[in-house]
Amino acid sequence: MSQPTPYVLVLYYSRHGATAKMARLIAEGIERGGLEARIRTVPEVSPENRASSPTVPASGAVYCTEDDLRQCAALVLGSPTRFGNMAAPLKYFIDGTSSLWLAGNLVDKPAAVFTSTASLHGGQESTLLSMQLPLMHHGMVLVGLPYTNSELTETRGGGTPYGASHHAGVDGARALDNHESALCRSLGQRIAMLTRKLHAGAAHVKS
Fold first, then answer.
1. Of 87, 65, 80, 77, nearest to 187 (Cα)?
2. Are 58 and 29 in contact (CB under 8 A)?
3. Neighbours of 47 (CB within 10 A)
4. What is the pTM of this model?
5. pLDDT tens across 120-173, in order?
6. pLDDT tens digits, residue range 79-128?
7. How far apart are CA 166 and CA 127, in angstroms?
8. DSSP letter string over 18-50?
């Protein structure tokens, strides 16, 4: 039986569109790195206990399923910053992945993170670090951005070694600049490259 084609899951929540744009740039990098990028999002959460979202979103990426996450070869997780942490809809989804944790479905798979903030010092790094915590509990292998990416030292907007980031502005109108865009693509390309190497190494061991 042939093995399924490996893909990198780009899973994000976006309220005003900036994080979604980053997801598409990261997906471009993944494709340049020679792997399929599968873009997925999560539904809103509501304070009303009985409220629910439609099964299929009205526009944009479709909602992530447990199988999307279970079968991915690697994961890139993205969220806007909410008080220095990931947004509630994404955390709610991640909090529901206990069955994958119990089965070890994500162990040894590469993972990376990205975020968008309204202010330049609005918690980008703390958000990225907090997003890495559940990935470590799942046994994933964290992938960041090395300083061989010159954009990290040249940027006047977002960009961190912990993952890609974007300064969207208080009104959310600031577009991703060239440095931020390049770092998104670099993160996608790097995780694709490392995923391919891990798959090649695993295949060599099995043979």
1. 77
2. no
3. 6
4. 0.91
5. 888 999 999 999 999 999 999 999 999 999 999 999 999 999 999 999 998 888
6. 999 999 999 999 999 999 999 999 999 999 999 999 999 998 889 999 99
7. 12
8. HHHHHHHHHHHHHHHTTSEEEEEE-----SSTT
pLDDT of 48 > 80? The answer is: no
Work out the burial of residue 32: count CB atoms within 10 Å of its CB; fewer than 13 is exposed, 13-18 middle, 19 or more buried.
Answer: middle
Give the pLDDT of residue 49.
53
Q: DSSP alpha helices (H): ranges in the chain?
A: 18-32, 66-71, 88-95, 98-103, 124-137, 151-154, 178-206
Find the angle CA(106)-CA(66)-CA(3) to the nearest 5 degrees: 60
* CA-wise closest residue to 166 among 131, 97, 119: 119
* Structural contact between residues 117 and 123, judged by C-beta atoms closer than 8 angstroms: yes
Residues 6+ positions from 205 with CB-CB distance below 8 Å: none
Distance set, CA 126 to CA 16, 43, 129 (Å)? 21, 23, 5
State the Cα–Cα distance between residues 50 and 85, nearest whole angstrom. Answer: 26
